[in-house]
Design a protein that fits this description.
By secondary structure, this protein is of the alpha/beta class. It has four helices and five strands. It has one domain: Rossmann fold.
C-alpha cells in the first residue's frame, strides 16, 4: 500500500539568478506541481521555505521571520552557491534557519532543483 505524502507548499526568499531558474522550474516544461510542490501566498500556509541567491542581513532576518511563521512540519531548501555557502554575506553557525536540502550551482539547473525537491520528498514525514 502506497503512503501518500502531503503537498509541499512553498514560499520563496531571495533574488538574483537563482530566482530565474526557480521560475523556469515552475514552468510547464519542468512542472513542479507534478511533484506535489505548489506555491503559497502566505508563510502561515507553507511548509517549505525556498532560500535562493544572496541573502544580505536584512533579507536573512526576513527569511527567519517566514520560517518562524510556518506551520509544522517545516522544511528549508537552499538553492544556489550563495545560499548554500553564504555568498557575500555569510551567516556561519546561525541555527535559526536549519537547511534540510542544499542544491548547489551558480545558478543551479532546473533538473538539479527538481532533484532537490525529490530528495526532500524522500525524507518528508
Amino acid at each position: 500500500m502506497t503512503k501518500f505524502k502531503p503537498a509541499l507548499r512553498y514560499v520563496r526568499v531571495g533574488l538574483t539568478c537563482c530566482g530565474d531558474d526557480w521560475i523556469q522550474t515552475e514552468s510547464s516544461r519542468y512542472d513542479l506541481e507534478r511533484l506535489g510542490c505548489v506555491a503559497s501566498e502566505r508563510a502561515e500556509d507553507a511548509n517549505l521555505l525556498v532560500v535562493q541567491g544572496t541573502l544580505n542581513p536584512a533579507l536573512f532576518e526576513e527569511a527567519v521571520a517566514h520560517f518562524e511563521r510556518m506551520g509544522a512540519p517545516k522544511y528549508v531548501i537552499a538553492i544556489g552557491t550563495c545560499a548554500c555557502g553564504g555568498g557575500l554575506f555569510p551567516t556561519p553557525g546561525d541555527e535559526r534557519l536549519p537547511i534540510n536540502i542544499y542544491v548547489t550551482g551558480c545558478p543551479p539547473r532546473p533538473e538539479a532543483i527538481m532533484n532537490g525537491i525529490l530528495s526532500l520528498r524522500e525524507v518528508q514525514a
